[in-house]
Amino acid sequence: MNKDTLYMELAIKEALKAKAIGEVPIGAVIVHNDEIVGSGYNLRESEQRSIAHAEMIAIDQACASMGTWRLEDSTLYVTLEPCPMCAGAIVLSRVKRVVYGAADPKGGCAGTLMNLLDEKRFNHQVEVTKGVLEDECGNMLSDFFRDLRKKKKAEKTASKNLQ
User: Fold this and answer.
1) pLDDT digits 0-9 by tens, 100-135
2) What CATH number has the domain bearing residue 118?
3) What is the tally of structural domains in the chain?
4) Fewer CB atoms < 10 Å away: N or C end of the chain?
5) Residue 99 domain-assigned (yes or no)
6) Which residues of this UniProt protein bind Zn(2+) (predicted)?
7) 21, part of any domain
8) How many angstroms separate the CA atoms of 78 and 114, rounded?
9) CB 117 within 8 A of CB 108
């Protein structure tokens, strides 16, 4: 098993923590010199904070553990392609490389809608590797949203039956 697969599996484990508490299952880990220096999973609904994305939490943790805001020579592994906010934080924290699982056709800023990570007008560009464990990451998200729709439909039906 190569390192990208190994670390993406750890990001998936982070995503499963989010799923277990009813959050959208997105997870991230940051690796520096073959050591995990930060990890996180989506907490946006639980904390009602728009910035509580897996990547943002992992970046914050990595900065604290490394004692610097510069995460040079680090790789961020995330189960879903970063959004504009997370892509900006990745560039600003000088992450060297991003590896993601599933593409995000609605908000992906690492190559799908645009590529903020390779924007030449910024003073830092980030290498991108996409599609690592793509099926596992994508299916986890698809299953979550399918189950959520079923739950909401069942609740709506139950509410109508009570009336």
Assistant:
1) 999 999 999 999 999 999 999 999 999 999 999 999
2) 3.40.140.10
3) 1
4) C
5) yes
6) 53, 83, 86
7) yes
8) 17
9) no
Q: Name the residues annotated as catalytic.
A: 55
Which are the contacts of 128, defined by CB distance < 8 A and separation ≥ 6?
Answer: 97, 98, 99, 100, 110, 111, 115, 117, 118
CA distances from 4 to 72, 82, 99 (A): 18, 17, 7
How far apart CA 119 and CA 139 sit, in angstroms, is: 30
Give the chain's largest Cα–Cα span. Answer: 60
32 is in an annotated binding site: no
Q: Does 146 map to a domain?
A: yes
Whether the per-residue pLDDT at 159 is higher than 80: the answer is no
Is the pTM above the cut of 0.85? yes
Which residues, 6 or more positions from 64, have their beta carbon under 8 angstroms from its beta carbon?
A: 38
In a domain, 163, yes or no: no
